[in-house]
Amino acid sequence: MQIELISFGKISDFISNQILEIEGIETTDDLKKHLEKNFPGLADIKYKLALNKNLVQQNSEIKNRDSIAIMPPFSGG
Amino acid sequence: MEGQERLTMAKILVIGAGGLGCPALQYLVAAGVGLIGIADHDVVEISNLQRQVLFGSSDLGLLKVEVAAKRLKQLNPEVKIILHPVSIDKQNILEIISHYDFIFDGTDNFESRYLINDACTLLKKPLIFAAVSGFEGQLAVFNVEDESGIKTNYRDLFPVSPATGEIPNCSENGVLGVVPGIIGTMAAGEIIKLIAGIGKPLINKLLHYNLLTQEQYEINISPSDEYKQLDSKADFMNHYKENTSQSYMEINLQQMNELRNHPSTVIIDVRERHEFPQLDSNIYKQIPMAEFAGFASSEIEQQNIILICQHGIRSVAAAETLHQKYGETKNIYSLKGGISKWRRHFLTKQHE
Predict the structure, then answer these.
(1) Does residue B352 register a pLDDT over 50?
(2) CA angle (B334, B335, B338) in 5-degree steps
(3) What is the CA radius of gyration of chain A?
(4) Does domain B3-220 have CATH number 3.40.50.720?
(5) Among B166, B174, B180, B273, which residue has the fewest nearby CB atoms (within 10 Å)?
(6) For the residues of B193-219, what is the DSSP string, one character each?
(7) In chain A, where are the structural domains located?
(8) Residues pairing with B286 in the sheet
(9) pLDDT tens digits, one per residue of B42-56
(10) Distance from chain centroid for Cα B46
(11) Distance between CA B62 and CA B276 in Å, rounded?
């Protein structure tokens, strides 16, 4: 299935906005593992996912054509 | 009461008279709010001038709060301005914010942001959060209930503060001056909306703004159960107890398995009982976060305590709780990345 990845801040330096073809990934936990494996920089920073613009607070099912945002915290002022 | 009248009654504290604070202050004062507090202990430096638009080259070395107050008085002499030329810390924050109706966080570091968030959440103060990085900004309204009575705060978004160096700050990463200009101005807009009761403030929403594409992306924030709310002043003071030494260690799976062989080690799974995968209770003692405070009040006999959870976030909160109790007298660990990161191990190898 296909999902849309949208990234912000420092994360967009190594994960660009893209349509991602995924196999065998059914949940947001699976996706996190997949992303952290393929983009090792992600494993070292705090970030949150949003599934179709809703913050992911617990493992959630991913469906074809869902959009997933990957957000780091910002501290600058 | 009309909107303008409400504005003249409002008391707003702006923490951080920097890139975000300057434009927010200008528009709040121009709009005619009643009373503005400005908290900042820094002096004007030359590197500030590209984005901190209340200051000029003749102000170098002067206290920001004093220069800002002078400019703002020229703009609108009717507004009462209170100066707090102090570094906000755990000792003074509750007293300072207690005098205000709305708090604006325009600081530039995570330590201050978590402190301000926790203090505002404890005192139920509406908090307008703004932050920038590079060409992007974030904006949100915390501690204000939506129509369904739900409110959220920064810890619902990011339960645990990033470690030093994990996320670059402005001085490391740089920021284009207009970005805090835009975000700080938007923040002033949110405060005015909240006071006047107009429009749809960003309650339980995080707005992302990108200057390069002019795109905005809004995310709905829901409450998280991955942290423990600080419910009393004692909780708050305890959480922010002097704690410069490393309080606990984040370890990987291999380190956890090495420690497991040590006779005086206990591994505690702080997830809720319904969470999957269920682990062997002979190896992993299950104490859900909801029961953790009660558990932590009893004595743990083992010397090495390893906390685990699904993603390694709740376990950090649990590790902090235990560190407050045991200090350096016990070794406290949190499994980094949690069970989901090492899922294969927990699904297949736990009985070895």
Answers:
(1) no
(2) 125
(3) 12
(4) yes
(5) B273
(6) HHHHT-S---BTEEEEEETTTTEEEEE
(7) 2-71
(8) B269
(9) 999 999 999 999 999
(10) 28
(11) 57
Closest partner residue to A75 among B131, B206, B208, by Cβ? B131
- By the 8 A CB rule, do B11 and B123 touch? no
C-alpha–C-alpha distance, residues B321 and B228, integer Å:
10
Any chain A CB within 8 A of the CB of B216?
Answer: no
Of B108, B113, B133, the CB nearest to A9: B133
Rounded CA-CA distance B311/B270 in Å is 11
Using the beta-carbon criterion (under 8 Å), do B162 and A46 form an inter-chain contact? yes
> Cβ–Cβ of B131/A59 closer than 8 Å?
no
On whether any CB of chain B is under 8 Å from the CB of A77, the answer is yes
Q: What is the pLDDT of residues B229-260, one digit of tens each?
A: 899 999 999 888 765 455 688 898 988 998 99
Beta-sheet strands, E only, within B211-262: 215-220, 249-251
Integer Cα distance of B41 and B64 in angstroms: 7
What is the Cα–Cα distance from B205 to B142, expressed in whole angstroms?
A: 9
Find the residue in A nearest to B181 (Cα): A77
CA-based nearest residue in chain A for residue B107: A77
Coil, helix or strand at residue B112: helix
CA dist A8 → A5, B25, B217 (Å): 10, 27, 10
- Give the number of other CB atoms < 10 A from CB of residue B206: 26
Please report the ipTM that was assigned to this predicted complex: 0.96
> Which region among A8-22, A54-68, B107-121, B248-262 has the lowest average model confidence (pLDDT)?
B248-262
Rounded CA gap, B279 and A39, in Å? Answer: 29
Mean pLDDT of the residues in chain B:
91
- B185 at A interface, C-beta within 8 A: no
CATH 3.40.1160.10 is the classification of domain A2-71:
no
Query: Is residue B343 within 8 angstroms of chain A, CB to CB?
Result: yes
Class of domain B244-348: alpha beta
Q: What is the pLDDT of residues A7-37, one digit of tens each?
A: 999 999 999 999 999 999 999 999 999 999 9
Q: Which residues of A touch B166 (CB under 8 A)?
A: 44-46
Q: Where are the domains of chain B?
A: 3-220, 244-348
- Amino acid at site B47: S
Binding-face residues of A in 4-43 toward B, CB within 8 A: 6, 8-10, 29, 32-33, 36, 43
